[in-house]
Batch of 4 targets.
Target 1
Amino acid sequence: MAHPLHTADVLGGGSTDIGMPLRHGLDLIPRAQPDQAPATKKDFTSDQEVRWCPGCGDYIILNTVQSFLPELGLRKENIVFISGIGCSSRFPYYLDTFGMHSIHGRAPAIATGLATSRPDLSVWVITGDGDALSIGGNHLIHALRRNVNLTILLFNNRIYGLTKGQYSPTSEPGKITKSTPVGSVDMPFNPVSLALGAEATFVARSLDNDRAHLSEILRAAAAHRGTALVEIYQNCPIFNDGAFDAIKDRDQQEARLVHLTHGEPVRVGAEGSRQVLVRSTDGRLRFVAETERTESDGQIVVHDRHDPDPSQQFAISRIDDSRMTHVPMGIFRQVERPTYDDLVRGQLDAAVAAAGAPATDADLAALIAGKDTWTVA
């Protein structure tokens, strides 16, 4: 547990300091009773028929989440999944927890209200690249900058699947789809870079078919207090099949996947052909052969996910490109900052302590009416 950090330490002082200590992500959420049998995957599996296309990557993610949730040790009645619109947003139906299938792009806004009013809940947001980054773009970045205590899983398949195959905000340039018959001219979003630019306190990326890695990322995200964004590369076998084959193929993985490990140099490749990331004198990052590196190549980049300055984490996210020449995977950023919902509740508690809570209905009515009200005959 980190030392207590007051609001003024983060917000620059002034009247906003209400002495709010940092907390673990699950601190306020009731645990399952010790005399209860340990929960299993079956306890988190609903009776609803799963209605995704055969081979959809969503199946793997669902299975991974259902298997992971018992590890939290929480009552399932205190876990909530909120989604927007899209294939991924059917997720809440298939989990035996509370949930809400909400409106297009607005899941972060609804989840913000719930997390602020109900600190006893573990609130998760399920969204896709279209839902989160097109119509929901504003809601996403404001949830990230506010640092609401949410865990956001962003399924990125680089296509609109539910509406049958239009290009999305993460589709690569030149992508031919039903809505771009001669190729997309849009520059795509990099969701990790976007989150780091918004100074999200937890940002990570994983693959749908790497269950061990995804489970590890989910553990860290759930334990984080604040907004945790996990981008998951997910295959759509109908409208964008093979979008991530370059990093799923065993023969290409080692040369392309950059596994981020805190405190370790950023490397890619197998033994004998390994490359290391360096920062050149002009500030640019590039890979050089580890065995041939000289001082003139630049300083080796060591990954620090706890660095409060996101500049290097952002730079690492930019070595990714739409061709997936090198793709960083893992936790990019994991820092602590007071959460929006904790701060709001702290202000409300302070106001009640200073003024006192209304003792009767009449007192409450007088408070609502205020001093500047009048009756019109």
Note: The two ends are 60 Å apart (CA to CA).
Target 2
Amino acid sequence: MSSLPLDLLRSRGGFSRDTRFSPMLARASTAAAPDPVVEAYERGFAEGSAHAMEAALLAEREREAQRGAIELAFAQFDEHSEAELRERLRQTVLALCEATIMPVAIDPEGLAARVEKATGMLQRAHDERRVLLNPEDLALVRDRLPEGLAVEAEPTVERGGLRIETADGGIEDGPAQWRRILAEAFREC
């Protein structure tokens, strides 16, 4: 057979590696130098993540505080607050109505028609009627009024208003009465 001493080879445990011939298996004696670009990227990524997380937490705290404030406001909204809100809305609607009332009240044709209608309500022949208008309104409608109607300028009558006086009483119409009617209607709502 062979002249190799197999027993000798077996006793040493077999083959062993020689690092001279297998550099891949050799242990690196020194650690590789860190790459500054990779380190900068990782540091920037970590800092950016931390800032984003902090900003998200801050935004969530602010939203939670706002939610809490709204919930508290609704919890404190009692009958008194509701009455205040209702009154403010009523005042707002009245102000809006006021803005539409005045142009209608001082319209010459509309004012003349209201004078005729009001005087027509007092049809008795023996009634002596005095129609009182604001001096500025009288200048606007004098030519549009019926013949023979006693019309006088009265500075105490509001612009757009009219007052008819008779021996038995009188009739008054104008923006002040319209406002009062609107205010009463809104109080009932």
Note: The chain has two domains: 35-76, 98-188.
Target 3
Amino acid sequence: MTELTEEQMQQAASWMVRYQETYEMVGEFMWHFAMLEDDLNNLVEQMMGLETINGAILINHLDIAKKVNLAICGMQLQPINQQAAIKDLNKIFGINDDRKIVAHCLFGPTKEGGAVEFHRTTTNKKLSLDLVVWTKDDFKAKFEKMTALRKSLVDLTNTVKIVQSELFSTWLEGNPPGGSVPLND
């Protein structure tokens, strides 16, 4: 077995530090995203009037885009600043695009350290191979954005109410389930 030189051991130690730093940044991103998604789940459950276990069963069958779209639809029935709420909810789509990079791309530290490089392959009618690099500051900005959105989601969850839409009630009265065919003939 060949022994490593002092220089080789130092290089290996340096790479190990860079990999550890990379794993910490990626892991923290995924933690922030999981917390954001949990807050979104709570909002949708609250809007739909779902008990915790029923909400968990339903929510776990939906991807993040469907959850956001449900929340956006539900916001339209709320007596609050809908535009601001919907604007915040739409920001989750961009964060989810970032999550797809973190979760699905091969990654590692940059040679210099302090940043993560993601090797992204996309195949939307054309093959594209991209190198996406996020620095510590990029990660920090993404963490701060998710933290701010989490606060917004928690505030919305504490504000929203289950609303029976007058429009829907009026429509339902004129269009009962089963159509307009009388049940008792």
Note: The mean pLDDT is 88.
Target 4
Amino acid sequence: MTISGNKTFLVKATVQFEVHAFSSSINVQGFRCAIFVIMGIVAMLGYTYDWMGFKLTRTTSLINVLNFGAIGDGSADDSQAFLKAWSATCGSTSNGPSMIIPGNKTFLVKQPVQFEGPCFSSSINVQVWGDIKAPDMMNFGDINSHTWLVFSKVDGLIVSGTGKIDGTGKSWWDSCPKETDCKKRPAALTFNRCNNLQLSGLTHVDSADNHISITNCEVATISSIHITAPKTSPNTDGIDINNSTRIQIHDSYIGTGDDCIAMTDGCKFINITGVNCGPGHGISIGSLGINGSRTTVEELHVNNCTFNGTQNGARIKTWQGGSGYAKIITFAEIILIETGNPILIDQYYCPHNTCKNQTSTLGISSVSFTGFRGTTNTVDAIQLKCNSKVPCTDIALNQINIMPAPDMKPGTIIQSTCINAHGTSNTSNNPKVTCLLQ
């Protein structure tokens, strides 16, 4: 057998060479050269090899939904094909299998889909290059489902690509425009008990409810995502985080009809950086303590973010009657562009004005607002409204410079208000915050 040098050999299948003996007819130099070339190709293709037997074993697996019956024409229901492809991906024993949703296609997923773990591999990839689209409300597979696409108990999950997840939310919004007169709408994309999660690159549009929900997760990074829904779309939060720890969100754009990001009960060590928020209701901690519940959140940090035309900026909101704490919270280096309520602590949160007065023991402490600059369309730019039973403590405001938006009445003076709030404010802040208690 002669394998000449200066050649490129493409290995497309599992190959096994059995070498019994070398004869004088073998070109040894060419053989050695070819072996090194093949070894390089093998490594690039994701194979391992046994040197003595030259046995090649595929170490990665690419699983395309088209091979499991998906059509991708935007009309046929691809729900079952997605589940079959997921079963193959999650059950694969290869290293880092990838479920591929190819580009230039629109996959209609009419049923609520659960991508369940745990999986065999410690790293699972889902590559979204095409579009995934929900049906309208009348054609949704389970009208009572609170979710649409769910990943559950999948550790080491990496979801990436340049595709789009379209929740087709308008029919839901039109049928029940207010939260009080309709059933719970389905969140578009949910990650539950997914540790060491990565989500990047995707575009998310028009969810019926939350666009992305992170629940019961430990260690996750969300980056370079783009979330949009109309300013008037109800309850279309960009990202909701619940009972999760060590979550990072950075370098993303979120503009919806509700909170750009909301951190609720059980959140710890959350870092949000470089998010452009607007329209929407700002970045919120809460709501906390609903229905008299006990809630704890801590180590929540928002840095280098922009609020552009949002209803609120940096907000902490709690219901009356709750208990627990919210502590060690920072909002820093915030740009405001015609932002309503730039700095807001509201311990009397009641969105539908039907709440009765209750005693609350949910304490807010160690909160700093630093480096806020820009414009507001709200006269009371800083509002610190804390409960009387457990007042807010250790509130710090520094390097604040908030000016009236251009469309406000000339001569408008921006001001601050406080109720049961203790802390400090730098004398150079604008507006001045002289209402804080010592």
Note: The chain has three domains: 1-59, 60-238, 259-438.
